[in-house]
Design brief:
Alpha-Beta Plaits; single chain; 11 helices; alpha/beta; 2 domains
Length: 338
């Protein structure tokens, strides 16, 4: 439920309405005070409230019921778009955030070369996998803690904040200390125990859409994190599983438009995982920016032919520079910048 207050409502009146609602019990109130509009977002058992009693308060403009099961992620609770900071980078503002780097950290020389290359081309965040969830137990699983250390080293060299995937709740304390943004991969999107634990942190969380998740399920996973108190959530569309087998996944660019309509959370696109083909990365990057994505996550490797993970969808640093030059024009056309 949302309570819209009249323009000019005083802080004292806001506190009074809030206390009336809290007196009913089992309801939390999230005030959002803007220059022109103040709303109170209610979460909990709102059946305890008598709408007529609330509407009788002179500062109340109207009451609106929220049909969707997600509340904190709902645009009705937060009409303006949210911005999430990763280091000095803002995701969700007028400037696009570009996250780039290898699927997996393989060596010190590799991550240094790639990090320097993407920084020079204009990337704002360095991505790299230290822990790799793989379909086959025999595939390369990442350098794990050594990979984390190498990412931290690359950050020291380039100044780029780092984002990497967390797989175990037992590593949250270490990730919170070392990385700038914690990624939840597609396979863990509905690992609710992990999401609850991440809700207790204040680190930015990059939440990838699950392999077969609906948009509502994706937003409900974000809700788990936000309900715990951490509202620094970034959504990432990385393609979903359909009957089509030509590409690795089916890129759902319509999800960007849907999320922008339903939620205030920033959303980026990963055209590398979405297609699984390096030559599709550039056109999909263009399309993502054109439909309103707040940024991109692109896999960049200095030697894709010998990559230990996902070489077929990785582009080289010089190709990444071409992509950046290309999407700058798209960004300008839609009123954004890089």
């Amino acid at each position: 439920m949302i309570i819209v207050l009249k323009q000019g409502t005083t802080r004292q009146e806001i506190d009074y309405v809030t206390n009336v609602i809290l007196s009913k019990g089992a309801i939390t109130v999230n005030p959002m005070i803007g220059n022109d509009l103040t709303i109170l977002g209610l979460i909990g058992d709102t059946s305890r409230l008598d709408p007529a009693q609330i509407e009788s308060l002179r500062c109340v403009e109207r009451i609106m019921k929220v049909a969707e099961p997600f509340k904190k992620a709902n645009r009705m609770f937060h009409p303006g778009p949210s911005e999430v900071k990763i280091g000095d980078t803002v995701v969700g503002g007028s400037k696009l955030s570009i996250m780039a780097g290898p699927c997996s950290v393989e060596s010190e020389a590799q991550i240094e070369e790639v990090a320097k290359g993407v920084k020079e081309a204009g990337a704002t965040v360095l991505r790299g996998g230290a822990f790799k969830p793989r379909t086959s137990p025999y595939s390369f699983q990442g350098l794990e803690y050594r990979g984390l250390d190498l990412l931290v080293h690359a950050r020291e060299i380039t100044g780029l904040p780092i984002v990497t995937e967390l797989m175990s709740p037992y590593d949250i304390d270490k990730f919170e200390h070392l990385v700038d943004c914690i990624q939840v991969g597609a396979r863990n999107m509905q690992n609710f125990d992990l999401l609850k634990r991440l809700g207790q942190t204040r680190k930015p969380i990059l939440l990838k859409r699950g392999l077969s998740a609906t948009i509502e399920e994706w937003l409900m996973s974000a809700e788990y994190i936000m309900a715990g108190g951490n509202e620094n959530v970034i959504l990432c569309e990385r393609g979903i599983r359909t009957f089509e087998t030509y590409t690795r996944n089916t890129t759902d660019l319509s999800a960007i438009c849907a999320v922008k309509q339903l939620s205030h959370l920033p959303v980026i696109v990963d055209p590398s995982h979405a297609t699984g083909k390096y030559w599709m990365v550039q056109p999909l990057a263009r399309a993502a920016i054109a439909v309103g994505a707040d940024g991109l996550m692109i896999e960049v490797h200095n030697d894709p032919a010998h990559a230990l993970c996902d070489g077929a969808q990785s582009i080289k640093p010089d190709a990444f520079a071409e992509v950046m030059a290309d999407i700058r024009n798209i960004a300008k056309a839609v009123g954004r910048e890089i």
